[in-house]
Amino acid sequence: xxxxxxxxxxxxxDAVRLGGLETxxxxxxxxxxxxxxxxxxxxxxxxxxxPGEYSVLWLIHQNPGVRQGxxxxxxEIKAAQMTKMIxxxxxxxxxxxxxxxxDRRAVCLFLTEGGSAFTLRHRDAFFGxxxxxxxxxxxxxxxxxxxxxxxxxxxxKGTGQ
Length: 161
Hints:
Layout: H1 25-43, H2 51-62, E1 66-67, H3 68-75, H4 79-91, E2 95-98, E3 108-111, H5 113-121, H6 123-131, H7 139-153
Antiparallel strand pairs: 1-3, 2-3
């Protein structure tokens, strides 16, 4: 049993030894994601929206008529989850699905007028929570971080990873 002098108190978070996890990319990505999500939810207080959902709306805005499968693949969202999300957007009046005559298996996505207004109305809150607050990083460091994360998340040709 540990002596009372050896017990860490909740206020001593920095005293927790990571035992090698300080070099874990996964740990740092998770902590960064949690921090980004906290800032997102602060910016979107009172709006029933998640970060991934806004990203889907934004990409439909940027790519009218995008195929649902292409969008799911680009954002690495499972097909069933994407379908559920798009149905929710339809129920909210944000998205319209169109099945093209030339390929009845495909589903093309468009923002409705209300969906476009919603997306544009929340653009500054979405992009601003990172753009205007770099989480203590300089502009150059933010650029470097984005460059490194892009490299890290881009599959290497021929390896399937």
